[in-house]
Amino acid sequence: MLKRKVSVRFMIMLIFFSISVFAYSAEPAGIEIFRKSYPDIKFECVYDNSVYDYLITITVGKRVEKLYWQGGKFLPKSELLNARNFAPVFYEYSFEILDPANFTKEYIEELKAMSSPDSRQNGPVSATYIYDVIYESDTRKNVEKHITKTTFFGKASYVHDRIVQPLKNVEKKIKALVGVDKEVADFVNNLDSAGSYNWRTIADSGRRSFHSMGVAVDVLPIGWEKKNLYWSWRRDIDPDWMLLPLKNRWIAPDAVIKIFESEGFIYGGKWDLWDNMHFEYRPELILYTRKLQENRETIKRLEEEKAAEEKRLEKERKAAEEKRREEEERAAEAKRLEEERKAAEKIAESELWEKVEDEITDFESYEIESADEDVLEEIEGYEIFDGRYYEKIIDEELPEL
């Protein structure tokens, strides 16, 4: 009996273990997005039962670091208890520039709250640990080992060595449009500077800027001091900075923005808190947002297909219902006609019998006892009952009727 109890307990434990392994075998989709965005970096993911979270081992060359998933925040174990103080790495990037002409009152109030000093200083900070691993930017000394001088349309720029080639790809694609697109040509001809690396925090907050990693580039046009480029600069002279019309802002040409995005750079001019000179190398956000859009399109397509199928089935149901109704009407009509036919036959039969009875009644006055010989000869062959003539007359009359 004891042996059986142990066996059952072992089976229960085995089933629980199998369910646990199955439940946590799939890694978060964000890990694969980072693999595709940084193909030379190795990302390994296992589930750590001790903290109930995914542990990601990141290998960059000879450097190996471990971070926890934490809902896409990528935090070191020392920060797990402070996870609520950080914002996820992934967010949906807008591929469209937000037009203040379409802002609602609620959104305007949201922007005011978002841009307040209290929110920027005390709100959740961007979790940059994953980028400190990728760019070795945990300290100024470490990151500056990777900072190198390059040029962007002849303007000197100090950037992280990881974005040198993507930036050159951008320049090559833009040059291909200079001769055919006037806006692009004006952008190139009016470029004043293209600064990048700057070890600093973001204004009004304690958060590290991506300029500190050397992966953000500010493209400033000639005379930029007289243009509206940055929300915070506009806020200093206008509390309703978010309502400044797009025509009153300097905005990079759409073709230029799309080229930067094609090489993994996002444009700060599309942020809620706009920074129209700012391009930032974040290929994972480009890929993440496109995946979201694809999923939405897939969901939309599936919903449309489902709606079309439901419409088709409803049409078929109505057609079947109409057919059934028509068949019922035809059956009811046939039944009605049959009833009318039977009623007519019944009436005809009744009228026939009335006629027969009338004809028979004509003979009722003749009685056998009083009939003379001539009369008897005229009706010879008819049956006589109770002194009257009956059945023989009916047999002869029916065929004629």
Cα(first) to Cα(last) distance is: 99 Å
Strand percentage lies at 5-15%
Radius of gyration: 47 Å
The coarse silhouette is: elongated
User: What is the succession of H and E elements?
Assistant: HHEEEEHHEHHEEHHEEHHEEHHEEH
SS-based class: alpha+beta
In total, how many beta strands? Answer: 13
What's the tally of helices? 13
Largest sheet strand order: 8-9-11-10
The percent of residues in helical segments reads 40-55%
Q: What would the average pLDDT be, to the nearest integer? A: 85
Unreliable spans are 1-8, 10-25, 370-378, 393-398
The biggest beta sheet is recorded as: 4 strands, antiparallel
Describe the protein's architecture and organization.
The protein is an alpha+beta fold and 401 residues long. It has 13 helices and 13 strands. The strands form 5 sheets. Strands 8-9-11-10 form a 4-stranded antiparallel sheet. A 3-stranded antiparallel sheet has the order 1-2-3, covered by helices on one side. A hairpin with a 2-residue loop joins strand 12 and strand 13. The N and C termini lie far apart (99 Å).
Topology:
Elements: H1 2-23, H2 29-37, E1 42-48, E2 53-60, E3 63-68, E4 86-87, H3 105-114, H4 117-122, E5 125-126, H5 129-135, H6 140-143, E6 147-152, E7 155-160, H7 164-178, H8 182-189, E8 191-195, E9 216-221, H9 231-235, H10 254-262, E10 265-267, E11 278-281, H11 283-363, H12 373-378, E12 384-385, E13 388-389, H13 391-400
Helix pairs in contact: 2-11, 7-8, 7-10, 11-13
